[in-house]
Amino acid sequence: MFSACTRRMLTVLLVKGKGRKGGKGRDTASKDRGDAWRTDVDVVDKADMHNERFETYYKAQNILGEDEWDSFLERMREPLPTTFRVTGSRQVAQLLNDMIRETHAPQLASVVFEGEAVSPPKQIPWHLNVAKKVLRKSPEFKRFQNFLVFETEVGNISRQEAVSMLPPLFLEVKPHHRVMDMCAAPGSKTAQLLEALHAQDTVTASSFPSGLLIANDSDYKRTHMLIHQAARLPSPSLMVTNHDASIFPAIKIPSEQLTFPAGTKDRVVNKRQHQLFFDRILCDVPCSGDGTMRKNLGIWKHWSPMDGNGLHGLQLRILQRAMRMLQKGGRIVYSTCSINPVENEAVVAAALQSIPGFELIDMSTHLPGLIFRSGIKTWTPALDRSEYIESLPENKRADSKLVESHWPPSLAEADALHLEYCMRIYPHLQDTGGFFVAVLQKKQSPAPARQIPDNKRQADAVEDLETSEVKKPKLSAEDDAEVTEAETLDTMPESPSEPALVTEASAPEHATDTKGKGQAVKGADVHFKENPFTFLKPDDPVILACISQLNLEPDFPAANMLIRNPTGDTVRSIYMTNDIVKQIAENNDYTRMRLMTCGTKVMAKQEGAAAKRDNAEMQFRILSEGLPVMLPYVQPASILSADLATLTVMMETYYPVVSQFQEPFRSAIEPRGQGCYIVRFAQGGLGTASCVHGSCARVLCSHKLTARVFYRLTHDLVLPIWKSNVSVTLMIEKKAKSALSLRVFGEDITTAAREAAQKRRDEQAKSQATVGEASLVEADVIHEGNEGQEGESMCTGEQ
Ligand SMILES: C[S@@+](CC[C@H](N)C(=O)[O-])C[C@H]1O[C@@H](n2cnc3c(N)ncnc32)[C@H](O)[C@@H]1O
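Above are the sequence and the S-adenosylmethionine SMILES. Below is the predicted complex in C-alpha cell form.
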C-alpha cells in the first residue's frame, strides 16, 4: 500500500465479518489497550449502514466520479482492516519486527481454514484478510492474537489505522527539527514524530537529538494518554502541553539559540529573547470523523453535514495559529479523517487566503504506492440538516448562518491556490479509512539563507515578529470567540531587561535560579496545578553522587537534569532534557504554556525493600525506560557482560543471591559494592531456561522433569540491575519482565508467572475438589430424593 512506510510499520487485518460495535467518533476511538485486539460482537448490520443525508451530501459535492460511487459506498460498509505499528523503543521494536517476520509470519504462512488458505501478516504495503472465525478457531492465529494482545498491554504495539500513519510521513521530520503536534492525543502520530527525531538511535542506545517536539492537546485527561504513550519512546526532546491549539502562546527562546542573517537590525540582535518558530507542525485537527465509519459504525446513524460545519471555525483557527508559528521554509501538514470539503479544502483555502506567504505543495510522488484523489476546487456547504443540498448565489451567502470561509473560493482563486495538491484518500482505493492531507509550506524569504549549523537557527522568527501582519478571516460568531494575534504575540517581552519568567517562590537552593521570586507573571495560569520544573545545578550533590555511583562519562549533560516537585527538597525522580527543551522551560512560564512534562525520566532514588534491607544511603538507579538515553553516558568499562544463563537466573528468581550465578558473571559482580549496574547480554549468546509451564515442553513438565530449552539472542540486550549486599535484582517492571521473557525465551519463565501458574493450579484443584464435594452432596441428595420423592431429586440437587 505505502511503499515509503517506516521500518516499524506492519499491518494485519484481524477482523472481517459483518461489522463491529458502533463507536462514538474519532476522539473516543482509542480503547483500553488490552482490549484493542479482541474481536467485538457484531451489532450493526450492513442493512443499517445507510444515511440519506450522507449520500445526498457527498453526491452533491462530486467528490468522486459516477463510476466510483458504488464501490466507494460498498467499501464504506466493509469492516476496516486492522493495522498496527510497533511502537516501543528501538531495541524492542527491532525484536518484535523480527519475531513477527521470522516466527509468527512463517507459522501463519500455511494456515488453511475450512479449505481456504489464509495469508500471513505482512509489512505495509501488503494486507492480510482473516475472518473472525479463523481468529477464534485457528490455533495458529489465536497464538498470534495472544502475542498482539500481550505486547499491546505492555505498550510495544499499538493499533493504528494505516491512513493515520500518513501525516508524519509527509512532514519528513529530521533530528534537528523543531516540531509541534497541535492536537496530539492519544499520540499515535506523536510516537511517529518522536521516532523521526530519534532516527539516529541504535538498537540499544538513544540518540540525543538537538530538535524539539511539543505534543499538545486541549483535553487534560488525554494529555495523560500522550505522556503514557511517549514514555515508551523516552526522549529528552519532548514537551507535552495542555493548551487550546488555536491560541497556543508564543514561546520565548534566548538569542543563543539563533543566528542572525547579515543586515539584521541591532535592535533585533540585541533582544535577549525571541519567539520560537517551528520547522514542522502537524495539525491533525478534531473533525467529524466520517472517514472512520468503517470502524466507528455509530456515525452511520447520526451523520449530518452540520457536524463539519460546526468544526470548520475551530479547524481554521488551529491551522492559522500553526501558520503563525511556522519558520520560513517550514512545513505544516493539515489532516483530518473526514472527507467533507468544509473541514478540508475550505479550511485550507481560507487559511491560505487569510495569511500571505504560504503555498500548498505537491506531494503526489512522495509515497509512490499511495493511491489518492486530488483535492476538489468547489463544493456546496449544507445550510441545514436537510437531505437536499442547495447552493446560494454569492450575494445571498452573507444572509446564511455560514461564514464566508465555508464557501468555495472562485475557480480562478482555487486554481491559484492549487487546491488540487490536497490529497483525498477513499476507502475503496486501497482498503483503508477515508482521510485528507494537505501539505503547506511557508515561502522562503528572498534573501538566500546562510549555511547554519543544526543547533543554530536563523532569526527569521524575529523578522516575523517585527513585520507580521495578519489578515483575519470572518468567523462565525457561534463557532467560537475570535482570538486575536495580539493575545498571543503580545506576551513577548519587548525589552531585553524584562525579567525571565517562571515564579516559583519555593525554588530549592540548589536549583538554578531562573525564577523571579514572587513576581506575578504576565499570562500565568493560576488554575494550572502541575508541579514546577526545576533544573539542578551541575554541581548539585545529588548530580555529583549520580555521576560517581553510576560511573557516568565527563560529557554527561549534568546541567540538563531536572526535578519535579513543589519544594525541590526531595529528589525522587530525575528527568533529562536536551538544550532547547531546557531553554524553553527556563525562559517561559510553565503555567502559561500549561506544560505537563518535559524531557524523560531517567533516574530514580532506590527506595523500597532493597534499600531498607541494606540500610542504603541515598542512592540512585537508572530506570529501565531511561536506560537507552543514559547508556551513551555510562562508562563502557563499568558495563558488565553476561550470558543468557545469567538472564535466566534473574528471570526465574526475584532476588537471586550471588552464589546462584555461574562464572564469569559471578566473579564480575561479587566484588562490586551495593548499587545500580548495567549488564549487556551480547547478540548471538546462547542460553537455556527451565520450562515452567509453557507449551514448549509441556509434556516434560507434566512428568515433573526439568526441561532445558535452548535460545539464541538475536540482538544485544542491555538492562539495569541492582546489587544489594546479598542479591542481584533485574530492575524492570513485572509486566515488562514477562514481555521480555516471552520475547527472548518464547515463554514466560518469570517468578511471577510461575506463581500465577501455581495459583491457577491450586484454584483449579480447589474447584475440582468443590465439584467433587458438590457431586457427592448431589449424589447424596439424589440418593435421598430417590429414596423419598422420585423424579424431584435432580431439581433439588441442582439447586
Ligand atoms: C483527531 S484527534 C488527534 C489524534 C492524534 N493526532 C493521534 O494521532 O493520536 C484530535 C485531538 O484534538 C484535540 N482537540 C480538540 N480541540 C482542540 C483544541 N482546540 N486544541 C488542541 N487540541 C484539541 C482532541 O482532544 C483530540 O485529542
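Residues 9-37+82-159 form one domain.
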